[in-house]
Amino acid sequence: DAQPFLHCWSLSVEEQFYVLFPAAFFILYRKANPYRIHVLTGLFVLSLLSSIVLTRVRPEWAFYLLPCRACELFAGSILATLPGRSMTYTKLPAAIRIIGLALIGISFWVTSEGPRFPGYVAMLPVVGTACLLLPCGKAEGLAERILSSGALVLIGRMSYSIYLCHWPVFSLVDYKFYWQPPLVRLALKIVVGGIASAGCFALIEKPGRIFLNHPGRRGLAFAALACSLVILIPLGIVVRNANYVNADLRAIRSALRSGVFICR
């Protein structure tokens, strides 16, 4: 809770996947296209098994690292590469979408911080989302009517800004108002987080998308990305070295042997 930018780990995992997956999929498409779903399913299973095993042995690895979280992204990749409406899955009952909503709802109650997550527990919202995305049954069912409501559509449009803003707000509110009752802190998180997310969406994300998505500005978009990486990566390293204690085992052993203890 004391690290307001810790949530950027998931963005890092996504970007690592987006860097590696297109080239791998291109090779798969060219060399083994008839077996692409089988290969992707095999990679999904390997990633899931690594997540389940490491959740018990090294839970921080299972939570933060790409090989253990790639199964969640492979699930979407498998859906995206399934053949079209000729597949029998188009004849699945529309209730499969209600099941998907139910699985996502259940995941709110059974997932929590602790040694069991991610592991197999993380598959609840993944399978639920896959059920929602499968083309099956009637085009307009209960799940579609729920998800197409104005409030949920707006939340979906703002989801990226909400994600970027929510954790810094949560962390700083808990830090600043630690002695306040939980309900007071929750109300502050909702109000401040909502204002920050709406401002980020309206003033930065939405105009930024409109400006940078113009075909004539692609060069500018890539140049801005390159400049931001050149500036922010060294800055991040400097900030980390200046504010985080580096006390690995080798440094501790060396200090003990020399009788010198260094505090930073």
Unreliable runs = none
Gap between N and C termini, in Å?
22 Å
Please state the structural category: mainly alpha
Q: Helical stretch count?
A: 12
Described by strand count, sense and barrel closure, the largest sheet is: none
Whole-number average pLDDT?
A: 84
Percent of residues in beta strands: under 5%
Query: What would you call the shape?
Result: globular
Helix content: over 70%
How many β strands by DSSP? 0
State the oligomer: single chain
Q: What's the alpha carbon Rg, rounded to whole Å?
A: 22 Å
Order of helices and strands: HHHHHHHHHHHH
Question: Would you mind describing this structure in some detail?
Answer:
This protein has 12 helices and no strands. By secondary structure, it is mainly α. Helix 4 runs parallel beside helix 6 and helix 5 runs antiparallel to helix 6 (123-133). The radius of gyration is 22 Å and the shape is globular. The chain starts with 7 loop residues before the first helix and ends in a 6-residue tail after the last helix.
